[in-house]
């Protein structure tokens, strides 16, 4: 189940950065900045780094239920 959630998150991230050719099929690292409230994890910001070290900050607006 967790693998499916991560795969969906990666698809969402790829859609968000697809307008920038430096990030298309070139994602090296993803860092999620989250806030946990009442058993739910809300993604505040997401930083995507490409293989050349360029960073891009995006907002996914996702809330995940803990458990």
How would you summarize the topology of this molecule?
Layout: H1 2-17, E1 27-37, E2 40-50, E3 55-58, E4 63-65
Antiparallel strand pairs: 1-2, 2-3, 2-4
Secondary-structure element order, as H and E? HEEEE
Structural class: alpha+beta
Strand content: 35-45%
Number of helices: 1
Overall helicity: 10-25%
Low-confidence stretches: none
Gyration radius, in Å: 12 Å
Largest beta-sheet characterization = 4 strands, antiparallel
Total discrete domains? 1
Tally of extended strands?
A: 4
Anisotropy-based shape: elongated
Distance N to C terminus = 11 Å
Averaging pLDDT over every residue, what do you get?
86
How is this structure best described in words?
With about 70 residues, the chain is α+β, with helices and mostly antiparallel strands. It has one domain (about 1-65). The chain has one helix and four strands. The protein has one helix spanning about 1-15; strands at about 25-35, 40-50, 55-60, 65. Strands 1, 2, 3 and 4 form a four-stranded antiparallel beta sheet that branches. Strand 2 and strand 3 (about 55-60) form a beta hairpin. The chain is elongated, with a radius of gyration of 12 Å. About 5% of the residues are buried.
């Amino acid at each position: 189940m967790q693998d499916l959630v991560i795969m969906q998150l990666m698809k969402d991230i790829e859609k968000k950065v697809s307008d920038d050719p430096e990030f298309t099929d070139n994602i090296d690292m993803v860092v999620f900045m989250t806030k946990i409230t009442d058993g739910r994890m809300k993604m505040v910001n997401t930083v995507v780094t490409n293989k050349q070290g360029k960073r891009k900050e995006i907002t996914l607006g996702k809330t995940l239920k803990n458990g």
